[in-house]
Amino acid sequence: MARVGVVGCGQMGAGIAEVCARSGLDVKVAETTGEALELGRTRLTNSLGKAAERGKMTEEERDATLARLSFTTDLGEFADRDLVIEAVVENEQVKTEIFQVLDQVVTRPDAILASNTSSIPLVKLAVATSRPDRVIGIHFFNPAPVQELVELIPALTTGEETIKRAQALVGKVLGKHAIRAQDRSGFVVNALLIPYLLSAIRMFESGIASREDIDNGMEMGCAHPMGPLKLADLIGLDTVASVADSMYAEYKEPLYAAPPLLQRMVDAGRLGRKTGSGFYTY
Ligand SMILES: CC(=O)CC(=O)SCCNC(=O)CCNC(=O)[C@H](O)C(C)(C)COP(=O)(O)OP(=O)(O)OC[C@H]1O[C@@H](n2cnc3c(N)ncnc32)[C@H](O)[C@@H]1OP(=O)(O)O
Ligand SMILES: NC(=O)C1=CN([C@@H]2O[C@H](COP(=O)(O)OP(=O)(O)OC[C@H]3O[C@@H](n4cnc5c(N)ncnc54)[C@H](OP(=O)(O)O)[C@@H]3O)[C@@H](O)[C@H]2O)C=CC1
């Protein structure tokens, strides 16, 4: 799998593209507009600069990584890709439409179409294509260049060969640790993490403690690298709400229901770090 396509260059798309290019793969990244592409390119270049500054790679390696990356606003340029990883907004309709387009444009018969979705059932994306045996969830964690884990989520339709190839890519090529989960909304990590984040938001909303005390509680009391409200801001409050909605739709359990404050913050465009304001100001 030498040629990879990444759709979406937001925080996850940029991180996934960086991870793949750092592992020696030829990576093409697609965004909808030139403006979004420039933002994504800057995000990626800054992250590589930080990696070089922190001694995670040499300046030569950084430049070689950048040389393996190309950018486009035309998904038609993905014809020769061996693997495409979709990382656009957590919206089933948008993702389904992208899978339909990818199915048309990616011409290699053995090419795999993967999604970085956090919660949308993979089978829904698989059946939108003519190759449901070659669709799989490859779910990275934020920030992708730093977190070691990747969840592999085969849909009911995914073939064994696709699972084997995805597993080899994640472990041998990208050097990440893969865990397998069934195609149930939230998989392993978000099924545990999202109710925790929602509980913290409910705790804040009901005035039990300040945002700082909630976050310090989990950072200093449980050695989490960041407290739940800071983490929700890192993930993006729109994404947290969408993941909660998908999980609520799947399980109908109150613990997955997005609290009103989360919904109002999304309505207000306070999405966390990516918009400069969420539970904190950045
Ligand atoms: C929603 C979903 O579907 C799933 C999800 O992703 S849920 C979210 C999962 N993510 C988390 O839980 C994040 C929790 N937070 C953390 O892990 C940390 O706070 C953090 C990594 C985000 C930032 O940590 P920090 O210590 O404040 O930042 P920073 O010092 O810049 O970086 C931490 C390490 O990563 C390295 N790093 C940072 N950027 C890097 C890059 N682009 N490339 C390589 N390494 C990098 C740093 O060098 C540092 O490594 P050392 O400890 O060896 O020096
Ligand atoms: N945030 C996180 O911590 C994690 C998120 N995920 C998953 O990764 C995916 C992306 O999340 P994240 O990167 O955080 O979100 P962001 O909001 O940072 O980025 C989403 C990107 O998708 C782009 N986009 C939207 N529609 C299209 C389209 N039709 N074609 C191409 N690009 C498009 C957006 O561009 P524009 O701004 O121009 O609309 C934006 O750049 C989601 O499925 C999410 O659930 C998985 C793991 C962790």
UniProtKB/TrEMBL annotation:
Pathway: Lipid metabolism; butanoate metabolism. It holds the Pfam family 3HCDH_N. It is an enzyme of class 1 (oxidoreductase). The record marks H139 as: Important for catalytic activity. Residues 186-282 form the 3-hydroxyacyl-CoA dehydrogenase C-terminal domain. PANTHER family: 3-HYDROXYACYL-COA DEHYDROGENASE FAMILY PROTEIN, 3-HYDROXYBUTYRYL-COA DEHYDROGENASE. This is 3-hydroxybutyryl-CoA dehydrogenase. It comes from Streptomyces olivoverticillatus. The lineage of its organism: Bacteria, Bacillati, Actinomycetota, Actinomycetes, Kitasatosporales.
